[in-house]
Amino acid sequence: MRFRCNLSRKACMRFSLWLVILLLACSIKWVFKQFHRVNMDEIALVLQLGPGGVDGGLMWSFIKKVILRSVFWSVVLAWVCEKWDKKYKFLPWLVTVGVIGVLGLRIFTANIQLGSFFASEKSQFYEQEYVNPENAHISFKKKRDVLLIVLESVEKKFADEELFGPGGLTPNITRLENNHISFQKYEQLSGLSHTIAAITGMTTGLPLFFSSYRNVEKMLGASGIGSVFVKHGYETWSFFPASGQFSLKENFLKRMGFQHVYDGERLRSMLDYELDVDPFDGIDDGTLFTMTRPMIQEIIDGDKPYFILMETINTHNEGYFTQFCRDLGFEQENMADIAKCQDKILADFIDWFRKQDPDAVVILIDDHVQRSGEIWDALKDVESRPLANVFINTNAFYGVDINRPVAAVDFFPTIIESAGGRIRGCRLGLGTALTARCADVQTLRERYGDAELQRIMEQRNDLYYQLATGIKQNETVD
Question: What are the extents of the domains in the chain?
Answer without folding.
Answer: 9-113, 125-469
